[in-house]
Amino acid sequence: MKGVILAGGTGSRLMPLTKVTNKHLLPVYDRPMIFYPLQTLKDAGIKDILVVTGMHHASAVSALLGSGKEYGVRFSYKLQKEAGGLPQAIALAEDFVGGGKFVSINGDNLLFENIKPFVKKFAKGREQARILLAKTTREEAKKAGVAVFKRGKIVDLVEKPKDPPTNWVSIGVYMYGPDVFDIIRTLKPSKRGELEITDVNRAYLARGTLKYDRLRKGWMDAGTIDELWRANRVMRELTRKARQ
Q: How many domains does one find in the chain?
């Protein structure tokens, strides 16, 4: 199975740091942010990886990652010419993935557990989409795609609700089959002027082909100044403990 790391966007929430570099190259303790999603894919057994990056500082991303040989993987690259949302970035992977299933991960996501069991279920299963959920705070849920449950099944996904129905949110790991590209072609921009990943997942939900797994150890998003600071603090402690 192939993987996609979404490392585009303008990094506006991390300004002025992102005036000088791609946000996914900012340090999280002792390594660039993008190394964490890269490790997540590697741990899941995925070695053929497309990196989608924006026009700004794209050369810095490729200079760091290169061919992938140094990291035991094989990288390909695509440029997202404008910030049009995650589905727009995922659409750039159509030729890369061909007719197979793939795993997409946001470049600012830090996970604390191996997703290989979930990836294996998706690879062997008949479903065409699988998402990962993590439990978070009510305030954080207001800024994410929130899952609505009924009798243990997801019945809806709500994007950035003012009054979250649950604290279970869809994190930036998406497993799709090749029909996702047809779905993306049907999407219309939201009020933000971008395509929304929640609309992709709701399309699968309407078809009855969306599956999910719950993370036990959670995750972090390092997309704002406060989140980046917290990520550095947490990864510092985890790394030090691991080295003891």
A: 1
